[in-house]
Design brief:
The protein has one domain (7-399). Helix content is 46%, strand content 20%. It has helices at residues 28-37, 50-67, 103-111, 122-134, 141-157, 160-173, 199-203, 210-234, 245-259, 287-294, 297-306, 314-331, 361-370, 390-399; strands spanning 10-14, 16-18, 24-26, 40-44, 71-75, 79-83, 92-98, 136-138, 184-189, 192-197, 237-238, 240-241, 269-279, 336-345, 375-381. β9 and β10 (192-197) form a beta hairpin.
Amino acid sequence: MKVVGDIRKRILHEVCNQLTGDKLEFDRDAIIRNVIVFDHFIIKSYGLEIPVLIDIFGYYGFKELLENKVISFNFDFILPGLKDEGKLPKDIFKVALIKPSNVDEAVSKCLANVNDVQNITYKQKIKLKGLIADHFFTNEQAEMNECLSSFDSDITKSDILSQSINHYCYSNYGKFLNEKSIKVEIDTGIDGYKIKSNINEVIGSKDDPERMIIKKSIFSVLSLNRHLYKMLKYNTMSAFREAEIPLYENKLTLIARHFSTGRPINNFNKVIEIANFPDFTDVTVNVDKLIKLRDSQECILFRDWLWSVDSISDREINGIINDFRNRVGVVLNKPGMKIIRWLASTGIGGIEPISGTLISIVDKFIVEKIFPNKGLTSFINDKLPSLFSDKMDENAKKER
C-alpha cells in the first residue's frame, strides 16, 4: 500500500487497550476526534474494536465512513520479537520475525468480531466483513526485514539501547540513571546479539534482573522502529504513548546530529496543550452531521492551524479553537471538555544524508518527512499502557 500526499492529514492510532483479565477499554473520544480532525484515520487494529465502531456510528454510518475512505485498518500479523527464549545463554539475544502459520486464518479471526454486533442482520454482517476486508491492511515480511535492519543500525551504531534501559529503570525502579554509568557492550554474531552490561551493579539489585531489563528495552526499540516504519508505509502521523516520547526524541536527536554537518539542533518538538477541548467519549454521533462538521469552515481552519502552529499568534489561536469548539458543540450536542496534548514540530530544514553514508529506510523517512514539517506530528495517547510496563509485554505476547 503506497500512500502519497500530505503526511499530516492522516493519523495512525491504537484505540483498544486491554486491561486486567479479559476487560477491554476503547478510546471512543479518540475515534470521533480523529474522524473529525483528519482526512483519513488508520486504526491499529486487533479486530476487537469493530463492534464499538458500529455502536458509535451505527451500521449505515460506519458503512459510509468505510465507503468514503475515512477509516481503514492496520493489523500487523508479522512482528519482531525475541526467539529461543529460555534456550540461549544469559547474554545472548536473538531477534527474529514471528508470524502466524496461516495469515488468512488470522484475518478471518479478526473479521469474526463482526458476528458479535447486535441488531444488524446476517446479510449486513456479511456486507460489513467484505467492506472491512477491502480496507484492512497487513504487513509483509520484506517490510519487517527493513524494520529489523533499522533496529540493528540503532543498537550497534548508537546508544539508544542504553537510553531505553535508562527509561525502563526510571519507570520501574524510580531511578533515572546517569547514562554514562550504564555500560553496555554489544557484539553481533550468527547466534544473535551478545549483550553485557553492569545493570545489576548500577541499580543495586540482588534479584539479577539484567536479562529481563535488556529484553524489555530491546522490545521498546523494536516497537519504536516498527511504529516509525508504519508511519513511513502509510505516510501518516501517529499517536505515541507518553512513555515512547523520550525514546522517539532520542532517535530524532541521533539522526540530526549525524546529518546536520555540525549545526547544533536540539529542540525538534514542543508539547502543545489545549484545555476545554471537546470530549467525545459519551456523545451520540450522526454520521451525516459528522461529515458536514469535517467540511465546515471552523474545522478546516482548526486543521490548518494544526499544520502551522508556530506561524499564528496566541490571539488568533484562541479564536480558532473557540470557533471550532462552538461548532462541535452545536453539531454534537454539547460534549464535555478535556485537555488534549500533542507534539508539534518546530520544523528543521537543511538536514540531508551525507553522500555515501549508510542510512536505514526509517531514518531516511525521518529526515525527509518529519524534520521539514512544522505543526502537528503526533497526539500523545495517555490511555495506552507504558511501553516499559509488564502489562505491555503480556499484551505483546497475546498479539503474537
